[in-house]
Amino acid sequence: MKDKLTLMIPGPTPVPETVLRAMGRHPIGHRSGAFQASVARTTAQLKWLHQTSNDVLVITGSGTAAMEAGIINTLSRGDRVLCGDNGKFGERWVNLCQAYGLAVETIKAAWGQPLDPSAFQAVLEADTEKRIRAVILTHSETSTGVINDLEAIAGHVRAHGRALTLVDCVTSLGATTVPVDAWGLDVVASGSQKGYMIPPGLSFVSMSARAWEAHGRSDLPKFYLDLGPYRKSAARNSNPFTPAVNLYFALETALEMMQAEGLEAIFARHARHRAAAQAGMKALGVNLFSAEGCGSPAITAVDPGCDAEALRQLVKNKYDILLAGGQDHLKGRIFRIGHLGFVCDRDVLTAVAAIEGALLEMGVACVEAGAGVAAAARALNA
Amino acid sequence: MKDKLTLMIPGPTPVPETVLRAMGRHPIGHRSGAFQASVARTTAQLKWLHQTSNDVLVITGSGTAAMEAGIINTLSRGDRVLCGDNGKFGERWVNLCQAYGLAVETIKAAWGQPLDPSAFQAVLEADTEKRIRAVILTHSETSTGVINDLEAIAGHVRAHGRALTLVDCVTSLGATTVPVDAWGLDVVASGSQKGYMIPPGLSFVSMSARAWEAHGRSDLPKFYLDLGPYRKSAARNSNPFTPAVNLYFALETALEMMQAEGLEAIFARHARHRAAAQAGMKALGVNLFSAEGCGSPAITAVDPGCDAEALRQLVKNKYDILLAGGQDHLKGRIFRIGHLGFVCDRDVLTAVAAIEGALLEMGVACVEAGAGVAAAARALNA
């Protein structure tokens, strides 16, 4: 049905009408007082979301631009870094570091498994000469629906004393707590089309005092993504280059909505949706792809034991719900339910109902009709 | 008056309601067939606008991101390049090249004067060993309202035979002809909030076959702005990273409007507005900042002989028109009338009328009331 498709993918996520309307205004001058006032307000809102007093800078670009900014602003050619890699976005960190000539050591876990904090601890403790300059990882691994234990890993980095913690929080920020100051996260990268509930086009980087010290030493070449000028401009509520003005309008409005809901309520909602999606899938007799106990609050990856792409097409065509497919070698094997951002209980319940209907139609489900929805509803009301 | 301010700055430029409405849709999945169809259409439209069969790639970022992409995708550390510099954006090219360790030779002209093509010819002809790898310049120098003779300079580069031509066409594309193939322009960078008539957030890079050959040799580090993956994705009407989906909606709609108007009509409109703005200012007895005969079709810079910022504030507060101020050392000395993109005859006439009124109120005008508007109207009807 035209214009009825609902997004339940990990980005772009659904956007509130209020936000779309704010975005649809005529643009204003990016050097005007009115725009500077908007930048001042969003900067305060962003610090609230990041639970930090660090700088949080806004880049016009995708989440990858923010990840790259984190690397090239804090590291130098040949620096030794430790990367966590348990999915496509962990791989991206490794590729990014290699593109800039860093000496990358990788701690891997199989796709669907979480990174093991004790593996980080062992390498960091063995580094008595303090040669590791950064520990780099993905908090919520979007490709597999796994949340990594960032708090524990960041604790080991703090104990090391020398390395910085650089984290991709693209699908965790706004879905679960990311207390930047409490956990000592030096660089946190995120993107607008996720928990922020606005369309793609803006990305965000928080930088700690230690990250700025490293910026002063960094010799990697940069210009558009050099955060130095962003910091200087931010001090007068401005940007070094013309920003996506209309996405700023959207951002301010979305963050107002998030502040009205409150951080704890937002995190509880995402946790409830994860519980409902997981309970629904288990009741249908299909397997979760992520290991027990480490499912992301933003996305539930499912291994249905049938052609996942055929199921996804059926859910799209018959129920007007867009689920995400598997990436790389998981294409056709898994599908992913996005429950990130502007998602309500009804959305999760209908997604489970649609998947249930599609599994029944495909002759896959091992249980009776209604079991998935019943389990999801119980989880929502728990 | 609230919400009545009209933008007559060189970006963001005014956006048609049709485009704002297209942009205000709910986002769709960036890997969906519907989005790929949109990418296919906009790619064809972009080639039409660039008058080229070269690749034209879309980056989520500002015009500076596109400029940087041009540099880092075609050059290598230590490469010798020749930069034209006659304003703030010429300076930006120089800074960008230096940030990447290129050996920059500069051909300068005073702010307000055009670059001298024969100066390029002399340096290029003297380079018998063909060590110059690129000639880099700004077509329309936004800071001074000067258009450089790109056709002549590009001709000298072609005669050299080895160097590439890299051009910032941020405020010329969509305002005057930029026949990429006919002039042999290897890299052309532009930005969405200009002639494209959409809000900021997208930028564009066209790459010739010779530019792609250079890409294969380039050793400058890059990731988000590496155009290789963009080219690969573009072949299947996709993007390597999540693009600003809603700005794509705006882009497609704006380019449809431009195609309906036609390139020749668009260029004639901008030339007419330049003539009207120039005639109006001259009739008011104030000086144009750009040298005679080289005013940009996108922007008219004016040296009013009084406090330009006070005049700009008066025009803003009393007439609800936002003019641009001077940049760097020109702040307070000049103001700039943007007539780029979605600008009609009425807009130019009212801008001249407002400036006339403000000059009279400030006691600056040397001529009788009505002279500016009369001259502008004559030019519009010539």
From TrEMBL, chains A, B:
Reported cofactor(s): pyridoxal 5'-phosphate
A biological-process GO annotation: glycine biosynthetic process, by transamination of glyoxylate
Cross-referenced PROSITE patterns: AA_TRANSFER_CLASS_5
Molecular function as annotated in GO: alanine-glyoxylate transaminase activity; L-serine-pyruvate transaminase activity
Keyword NAD assigned: no
Residue stretches making up the Aminotransferase class V domain: 30-327
N6-(pyridoxal phosphate)lysine carried by residues: K194
UniProt KW keywords: Aminotransferase, Pyridoxal phosphate, Transferase
Entry binding sites for substrate: R336
Task performed by this protein: Soluble hydrogenase catalyzes both production and consumption of hydrogen from suitable artificial electron donors or acceptors. This subunit catalyzes the tritium-exchange activity.
Complex and partners: Heterodimer of a large and a small subunit.
Membership in a protein family: Belongs to the class-V pyridoxal-phosphate-dependent aminotransferase family.
PANTHER family: ALANINE--GLYOXYLATE AMINOTRANSFERASE, AMINOTRANSFERASE CLASS V
Record protein name field: Tritium exchange subunit
Source species of the chain: Aphanocapsa feldmannii 277cV
